[in-house]
Amino acid sequence: MDLTASDAARLTGLSTRTVNAVYLRLRHRLLAWSPAPAELAGAVELDESYFGPRRVRGKRGRGAGGKTIVFGLFKCGGQVYTEIVPDCSKKTLQAIIRGKIDVSAMVNTGGWRGYDGLVDVGFDRHFRVRHGQDEFVQGASHINGIESFWSFAKARLQQFKGVPKHTFLLHLKESEFRFNHRYEDFYKLLLKLLRQQPL
């Protein structure tokens, strides 16, 4: 049901501290069950997003105000993979792209300059959608799948009214796991996995 620890504590009669400890162990398990993909092929959408406070006074631009930067890969068909990155530089993004995506893939990105030069390193089928120029779909190219994940993850995390930096990865990977299994009965899936590997 995706209840907060305080709501679950009220319903179960357990302390919030106990519920939080169980939730933490479950999130560590979900992280372990979210492996990095082997080379993705077919159509893949790439995008970067910023997580953190909505607005910080006096700070502007990409990654403003110490937000956490997340890079996402979305395999057409519905699976997402995310990684926290230190920046959105060409060097950082292309290191991940070259390690996770097959050069034969059709790569769809936004217009950010960090994606410049992908064709030069073998990604001949690189297509851009330039949102800054009010372009959201270019033929069959778009990044709607990864953007739907960003919306899903941010809406989920909003209920916590702030996530500590040291547990952000766990919350992110929980969101990723839930999104990747969104067409399954999450409760039954969790029970099945926990029977195989109890906490």
Automatic annotation (TrEMBL):
NCBIfam families referenced in this protein's UniProt entry, alphabetically: transpos_IS1595
Record organism: Hymenobacter lapidarius
InterPro entries reported for this sequence: IS1016-like_transposase, Tnp_ISXO2-like
Entry-linked PANTHER family: DDE_TNP_IS1595 DOMAIN-CONTAINING PROTEIN, SI:DKEY-17M8.2
Name of the protein: Transposase
Top-level taxon: Bacteria
Record-annotated ISXO2-like transposase domain positions: 39-180
